[in-house]
Amino acid sequence: MKNGHIMAENEQPPSDSPVPQVASDARPEELPPVEPPSAGFIVQLFFVPALIVAAVIGVWALFGKMADSETDWAQLVAELSSGNEHRRWRAANGLAQVLNNQQIAAVTDGEVLAQKPEVAQALCDLLEETLQSPSTLPEDVEHRKFLARTLGTLQCNEIVLPTLEKTLSADRDPDVRKSGLMALNYIAERAFQEQAKAAGVKEQTVAGNNDVVINLAAPFETPTIDSEGIFAQLKEAMRDEEPNIRQLAAFAFSRVSGPDSMRMLKLMLLDGDSFTRANAAVGLARNGDISGGDALVELVEEFIDEVTVEDIADLEGAELKKEMSNRILERENVLRNCFRAIGGVYPQMSAEQRDKLKPLVESAAGSGDAKVAVEAASLQKRISDVEQAEAAQ
């Protein structure tokens, strides 16, 4: 190559290029003798790389052992009370990572940190310390949000719930309240599943995917989370001016269950925000309450049409793309959740509700959104099974 030009296979060198001349009387026996490789050269080729690989494996094994050892998490817990702020937050991040990893992959051998009171107490103490600070600096707010969300992974409710209650107060930063509500939803969902299992409620697998749904025949007589303080904060959240907080509150009521939660969800069917109404209607249905039947049909009617660019013609470029993505995801979530909820209460729905619903479900089954179509097809099968069973009676 010369001046960036790559010569083609059949291209000749320019006339001024030096062409090597080969002597006509050159003979093979005049080539330099070939010497066998030395022992040192062989060592460099094989032994040194082997040492490097062994060292890498050793370091990997060492870190694996450190990550699994009891002294590792105990040291992190101890550092949460350190006077050095950077050490405290490194320890908090380390514990959160281990807790998250144990959530993703079930622990079959070893210790479940989420069940250790000393871990829960240390994280709660650190969160309460940050909540007492008047600072509104972004990094301090982020710390509170991070710790509040982390509490959702812990399985020590007697320690966690009193601290979590403090994150839900109306005078907190809205993002901290949302993080607290999300953590509460994780805790309530676990309790809901455990109580349903103890009551002999069978899980249902959604046709077309491996998702599991638990639908009750009736709400639990006792709530899954027995905390008057938490319930009082949820009642405040359901009246908040920010829709996201009301949506999370509705979701939490459905997981807390019990008669009082059902009353709150029925009130939330009147909310002006579609997503809050959706969470309330779906939550009622999941608890075997048909009170949200009309709302479920109305929500399907509202979201059945696919999102088009004409819906947001006032936007363009990156904003248009982001808004389109958000609306498509919102539509998908509302319809899928509504279809699953309807599947649980369809036998209790009125003839009028069924007549409105069936053409909508048929339309969704032919939707261009594959996930919505799968849920609609699953609901169609459920409707067919129910009606066949009713006809046979």
Question: What can you see in these coordinates?
Answer:
There is one protein chain. The chain has 393 residues and is an all-alpha fold. It has a domain at 64-167. It is 64% helix and 1% strand. It has helices at 39-68, 70-79, 85-104, 117-132, 138-151, 157-167, 174-198, 228-237, 243-256, 259-268, 274-286, 293-303, 317-345, 351-365, 370-392; strands at residues 204-205, 212-213. It has a two-stranded antiparallel ribbon with strand order 1-2. Strand 1 and strand 2 (212-213) form a beta hairpin. Helix 2 (70-79) runs parallel beside helix 4 (117-132) and helix 6 (157-167) packs antiparallel against helix 7 (174-198). The longest helix is centred in the first third of the chain and has 30 residues, at 39-68. The protein starts with 38 loop residues before the first helix and ends with a helix. 31% of the residues are buried. Residues 1-24 and 62-71 have low confidence and may be disordered.
**Spatial extent as radius of gyration:** 32 Å
**What would you call the shape?**
globular
SSE order in H/E notation? HHHHHHHEEHHHHHHHH
Question: Low-confidence segments, ≥5 residues, pLDDT <50?
Answer: 1-24, 62-71
Helix fraction, binned, reads: 55-70%
Largest sheet: 2 strands, antiparallel
Strand residue percentage: under 5%
- Sheet/helix structural class: mainly alpha
Strand order of the largest sheet: 1-2
β-strand number: 2
Number of helices: 15
Summarize model confidence as the mean pLDDT: 82
- Distance between the ends: 86 Å
